[in-house]
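Form 12-C: Joint structure prediction
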Amino acid sequence: MTHLAQYRRPFWNTQPGYRFDPYGSTQLRSPNEALIVVPQTLSEITGPAFGAAFVRQGDNDLTRVASADAIGERIIVSGRVLDENGRPVPDALIEIWQANAAGRYLHKRDQHDAPLDPNFRGEGRTVTDAQGRYQFKTIKPGAYPWGNHYNGWRPQHIHFSLFGRAYATRLVTQMYFPGDPLLEFDPIFQCIQDVKARNRLIATLDWETTVPEYALGYRFDIVLRGRNATPLE
Amino acid sequence: MLYPTTSQTVGPYLHIGLSGLNCADLTAGLPHLEATAIVIEGRVTDGQGNPVPDGMVELWQADARGVYRHPDDPGFASAESQSASFTGFGRVPTEPDGSFRFTTIKPGPVAGPDGSQQAPHLVVSLFMRGLLKHLSTRMYFPDETRANEQDWILSKVPAARRETLIAHDTGSGILRWNVVLQGSGETVFFDI
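Section 2 - Result
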């Protein structure tokens, strides 16, 4: 058990720090002390294996609650979950949640004065297939104001939560939309120093998954940490 | 070579999409746990001691034998995965007062670095509005003084801060373990 393959640590400026003053909520919630670097043990290289049993048919369609269609622009969001070596990650559980077309979350604490849509669930889940592929049908979320700074508005985004093979590869992120003028003013998007890494959170318009006369497709590939080729001691 | 996708905060409305996997009682419906159920209670507070009401706590642990339900654990037999067995995964949202509560079992020791055995522990992840990437920490057990002293991971933690990772026995079958995000008594967080 001395030879466990470690998952690589991300290159430092491709991930946000814990404290980012323009995003006010980080100020009291970021540790002052430096994180303690430890090797990954059996506890970190294992992780919950959810698999397809945790997902029901239709869980990846957010547009239909009862019999009526959700309001807004229908979109197909799809992509692949890969590791750093470009290998597909099968059986990755993906959970998503988002605001509706008017920019309102289905949550009692969302006080934004925009209409709720009784036919929009705002949440879904799916599991990647053997090639690491996933797909959701949803509604393009609206932008909405938040009190972080004067006239602050969050760009349109979908929250993603992923479980890969190991606890070390756990990831929560957000998908943004191309051409959104709010991106350059959003401290949550801007918290990532490396511009290329930041821009990888923006989906691309995807004609392959676009359904004619029905829904535009957006592609969003997600990369989880990969293992070092050579096991470390 | 690709680069891992960047982390982002879960935001304030995380429960919308993540409640489907909520599991506060890891022992539910499992008759053969080979261990007594324990309750773990705690509270998450920020740098001013205020509760974090919009967070989520996830835990991952081995079973009473010290085996993770995962094919990369040499002790795991895949046939087991077909039957109802201890999953080792828990997830709860924090309450308005920042509190969380799990019912689970004490895990057995699992292999550590350099051929050592790790003291029984839970791996814990914290998510919340204002956290751009989740925090990783561990909870150790108060009745394992000797194993804790010999634990390879705990030995990397400055002695004065180790107690932030060890739960307190309240004497009524409940273990108390608070998480302090910042400042005095700040919990130790790990870069894994």
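Section 3 - Comments
The domain at 22-180 of chain B is CATH 2.60.130.10 (Protocatechuate 3,4-Dioxygenase, subunit A). Chain B has a mean pLDDT of 94.
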